[in-house]
Amino acid sequence: MDTSSFLSTAVFFCLIHCSHSDITAHHNAVKCSSPWTRPVHPFLRVVGGSVARYGSHPWLVSLRYKGFHFCAASVLTDRWLLTAAHCFSDSSEEFLGDVEAVVGEHDQKVVDRGEQSFRVKSVKLHEKYQHTFPMSYDIAVLELQESIQFSDYVQPICLPFPGETFPPKTTCVVAGWGRTKERGPLTPVLHEVQLELVDSAVCQHVLQTLGLGRDFYAVLCAGPERGGKDTCQGDSGGPLLCPRADGQWVLVGVTSWGKGCGRSWINNRMNPPTARGSPAVFTAVPVFLNWLLRTGTTGSQCSVGDGVLTGTEGIIRNPAQPGLNYNNNEACSWSISVPEGKQILLEFLEFDVEEDSLCSNDHLTVFAGEDMLLGSFCGREAHPPLLIHSGTARIQFVSDFSVTGAGFSIRYRAVDHDYSLGPDCGTVAMFESQGVLRSPNYPRHYNNSTRCRWLIRAPQGHIAKLDFSDFYLEQSERCEYDSLAVFGDTEAREEIVLLCGQSIPPPVLSFSSVMLVQFHSDSSVSGRGFTATLSFISKTDF
């Protein structure tokens, strides 16, 4: 698009908390961005586009001013929508009085099945939003005057898990009623497009070629170098959705801006400024998860006391009293800070949270500091203790609008830096520049039926390295008895190496800044175990 007309283009858990008060029994078990409503059209485009399948984007909203479409939005809950801030640079009461939000929309020339219209009660722009081009912090939430009635054609959208990433070349989907070509007319019928995510460094470089004079904060790009597929004027505020493994579509970006519509951006600097193009530019939603939580738009507030916790010991629980279940639609966040020179021990006393394989429904997530993801927890079994080599941590609990459970009770304690979890083990989260990993009781024999985990996060631009000085585990084919496994991710899906036997292994390097080490022993033979030195290596040293 032209820079003068920029109303266009752009864990371990689903943060959206969808209100259930108006959902029929048929939809009580439906999650956000349910697989049965995902986009499935095989030929997806917006600029150069094709019509979307009816009902395939039930989270998409048409925003109209005096009856005319001007922007899009996404359904967060029955009362809140997410959109781009630049759509509401004028957020006066007079302007909002002429704005309506239409959900369940497909063809704007007719009244569609499931279509509902709502007046906007209020708008909240991000406090750092800058309307001067190129825009930054281009994100806003809208509060409706009445509640949406969810149906097959109207559903909430999923937000990404904290720390969840989608790699470059991930094929994502955008839909809208915007222009189907540069300077063309708006389309009355919903169109859709597949766009691949662009590497963040490439994104920043291409945007710099536009001569706009500064870095671009919290944006992501999507679209082919050769052009031909893009978003355009009228698509602003709509969602960029990317798939996760379980079939859910996740809101990764909010359509923000771009240079031209469907232009090529190959060798931009070789072209005159007026002929240059860009990928579609989106506000990066993962960056703003905490902001959305603070606005109170992601569902009802926490039913128990949350907030800042200080001191040397305390209990975090939900629900507040035993014998009850936690509520649907909850968003709770506790920030823990212990005295200087101490680190944090979390002990899971009770745990009964809806279980699913990816912990994408109800879940509890733990961070070191404010945003260093350590893992998400769900299920019906108590988890082993977690020792965090940090004086601050954050615990966040989220529930959706279907199944609940008896909840959880977690004790936090301030402990010394030489504290050990002992032979019973658990999980240790390590961030020091150097440390030692040892099997329990080393150099004496480790216990049978032991489970130990070390979650290691290297500083930005570094990888983790393990150097073994001793190694003696029970030998077995394929290490099916006692073993030490090293993974390149917190979910233990990307195995780096599986070790057992009596030979000292060569050094082990992580793929990225994350390394997960898991030690497992069975119920019979044991050995003296292992010891290894942890260090961090700069990627530039390779």
Strand content bin: 35-45%
- Poorly predicted residue ranges: 1-30, 35-46
Sheet/helix structural class: mainly beta
Helix percent reads under 10%
Shape: globular
Please describe the topology of this protein.
Blueprint: E1 45-51, E2 60-65, E3 68-75, E4 80-83, H1 93-96, E5 99-103, E6 116-125, E7 140-144, E8 171-176, E9 191-196, H2 200-208, E10 219-222, E11 239-243, E12 249-257, E13 280-284, H3 289-295, E14 307-310, E15 313-318, E16 331-337, E17 343-352, E18 363-368, E19 372-377, E20 386-388, E21 392-398, E22 407-415, E23 427-430, E24 434-438, E25 451-457, E26 462-472, E27 483-487, E28 495-499, E29 508-509, E30 514-520, E31 529-538
Parallel strand pairs: 14-16, 20-23, 23-25
Antiparallel strand pairs: 1-9, 2-3, 2-5, 3-4, 4-7, 5-6, 6-7, 8-9, 8-11, 10-13, 11-12, 12-13, 15-22, 16-21, 17-20, 17-22, 18-19, 18-21, 24-31, 25-30, 26-29, 26-31, 27-28, 27-30
Folded structure, characterized:
- This protein folds into three domains: 25-294, Trypsin-like serine proteases (Thrombin, subunit H, Beta Barrel), CATH 2.40.10.10; 300-419, Jelly Rolls (Sandwich), CATH 2.60.120; 426-542, Spermadhesin, CUB domain (Jelly Rolls).
- The model is unreliable at 1-30 and 35-46 (pLDDT under 50).
- Strand 2 (60-65) and strand 3 (68-75) form a beta hairpin.
- 46% of the residues are buried.
- The protein starts with 44 loop residues before the first strand and ends with a strand.
- It has helices at residues 93-96, 200-208, 289-295; strands spanning 45-51, 60-65, 68-75, 80-83, 99-103, 116-125, 140-144, 171-176, 191-196, 219-222, 239-243, 249-257, 280-284, 307-310, 313-318, 331-337, 343-352, 363-368, 372-377, 386-388, 392-398, 407-415, 427-430, 434-438, 451-457, 462-472, 483-487, 495-499, 508-509, 514-520, 529-538.
- With 542 residues, it is mainly β.
- It is 4% helix and 36% strand.
- It has a nine-stranded mixed β-sheet with strand order 15-22-17-20-23-25-30-27-28, with no helix packed on it.
